User: What shape does this take?
Amino acid sequence: MPLAMVFGAVFYPWMGYITFLSPYLIFLMLFITYCKLTPHDFKPSKFELCLLGVQMLLAALAYGLTFFWNRTLAEGVFICVFIPTATAAPVITSMLGGSISKVATYSLLCNATVAVTGPIVLAALGDHPEITFSESFLLILKQVFPLILAPLALAMLMRKFTPKLHSKVVGMQQLSFYLWVVSLLIVVGSCTSFAIQNWTPETTGTMILLALGALIVCLLQFKIGRKIGNRFGDTVSGGQSLGQKNTVLAVWLALAYLNPMASIAPAAYVAWQNLINSWQLMRHQSKMEILKPTV
Assistant: This one.
């Protein structure tokens, strides 16, 4: 995984040729992961509601505490917290031994909340009053929900009508990991290209602040999420639900509503969250190797 990130950063000029693959890879990853679920697994509980309340509170605090210092920084860290859980979060959660159903349920709940409140909140913070509520609402729905609901619906239909094929897909869970590595390579390359294209000597200081701000809120969200998850008996699911973000959507929202420079924060968040995910997966793998019985 670290090699995939390095490869994506080094060969970023060519990532544009395969960027179109990202939504298809995400769709496949979620489809394979969702095949492990049943309709009864989607039950919102205190766990998801607690996470959602904390996420909205953290977003408000992130903006309020930095606004009077640097508005661009405030917008950047705000969008890194406000955006919903990454569509790939259930995949990583599964690899780490957490509850796919909890993260999938929270992802649906969080995305629905952002789809409804996002246009209002971002229109109030940003400088693009020409974008109407209905336009932005439909754009967010178009960006987010097909990637979440379509693979889930397909997995449920396959479970009901083609159980043999469904069982085969359930046994292919390891494929999600390799799809995620390729997705990681593409995303890192795209974000590197984005940062280089928007760099000027005058913006260096702001870009560094945005990258550091993204790192701080990334670490906080993983830490707080794990604390909440621990209270409900699932540390991994809490950390991934709150910490792993849909950064592609975040970049788009920042460009559409806020100071375009603020989009550097979610672009940097890509690197931070995937470094954390890589470390967690390597640590989890090491633990599994230790626990593996010897012959």
